[in-house]
Amino acid sequence: MDIIKFIEEEVEDKCKGENNVFGYGIWSHHIVIVVKYAKLLAKEIEADVEIVEIASLLHDYAGIKDYSKHEEHHIYGSIEAERMLKKLDYPNDKIEKVKDCIVSHRGSIQKEKNSKEAICVANADAMAHIENIPSLLYFAYCKKGLGIDEGAEWVSKKIKRSWNKLSDEGKTLIYDKYKNAQKMLNIALK
Q1: Distance between CA 79 and CA 68 in Å, rounded?
Q2: Per-residue three-class SS string for the chain
Q3: Considering only CA atoms, which of 111, 166, 52 is closest in space to residue 178?
Q4: Radius of gyration of the chain (CA)
Q5: pLDDT of res. 13
Q6: Predicted TM-score (pTM) of this structure
Q7: What sign results for the dihedral spanned by CA atoms 19, 24, 30, 36?
Q8: What is the CATH number of domain 3-189?
Q9: Rounded to whole angstroms, how far apart are CA atoms 61 and 80?
Q10: Exposure winner among 16, 38, 61, 125, fewest CB in 10 A?
Q11: How far is CA 13 from the centre of its chain?
């Protein structure tokens, strides 16, 4: 069995589900981008690409399955990952690495990244926010119900936080997109 393919299908299926308040876009406009950047960074800094890909696929899984777990989705996500990976007979030492990546990926919670793999996933999550401003605007306006200025401000702060958590390698890869996003949002906020 191809574990990565199985996890991809499981996560995408949950993204299509009625209980997913983020809409299918969290798959197409966030998770897919996180996976892309995480794998790119893993190759650049010689991290374990398989661990990084699995953790990237599962990093928001708990909040997608159950929005009531969104605030602590990094914690619940590591539990979900362990449950799923054990059923797939994935090696315990690798499960622990995946869990560490998931538990430490959030930019709003300062947790030390204990491995190259955790750095890759946290960076990729931030880079996906910066790259895909429309998904953040959708969340701000459609899901959070914010007004135009309030939503633009929320998105601007979100991408600043995302930028600030990036490693030098991550900043180099996403610099132009970050500057362009901030420029656009600053025009909207004037």
Answers
A1: 15
A2: CCHHHHHHHHHHHHHHCCCCCCCCHHHHHHHHHHHHHHHHHHHHHCCCHHHHHHHHHHCCHHHHHCHHHHHHHHHHHHHHHHHHHHHCCCCHHHHHHHHHHHHCCCCCCCCCCCCHHHHHHHHHHHHHHHHCHHHHHHHHHHHCCCCHHHHHHHHHHHHHHHHHCCCHHHHHHHHHHHHHHHHHHHHHHC
A3: 166
A4: 16
A5: 96
A6: 0.89
A7: positive
A8: 1.10.3210.10
A9: 8
A10: 16
A11: 17
Q: Are 185 and 134 in contact (CB under 8 A)?
A: no
pLDDT digit of tens for each residue in the chain (190 aa)?
A: 799 999 999 999 999 999 898 889 899 999 999 999 999 999 999 999 999 999 999 999 999 998 888 888 888 889 999 999 999 999 999 999 999 999 988 655 566 667 999 999 999 999 999 998 888 888 899 888 999 999 999 999 999 988 988 989 899 999 999 999 888 888 877 7
Domain ranges of the chain: 3-189
* Residue bearing tokens 């199985």: 6
- CB burial of residue 5 (10 Å; 0-12, 13-18, 19+): exposed
User: What is the structure's pLDDT at 108?
Assistant: 54
Q: How many CA atoms lie within 13 A of 60 on its CB side?
A: 26
Measured CA angle at 103 (ends 97, 73), to 5 deg = 135
Token pair in block for residue 73: 């989705």
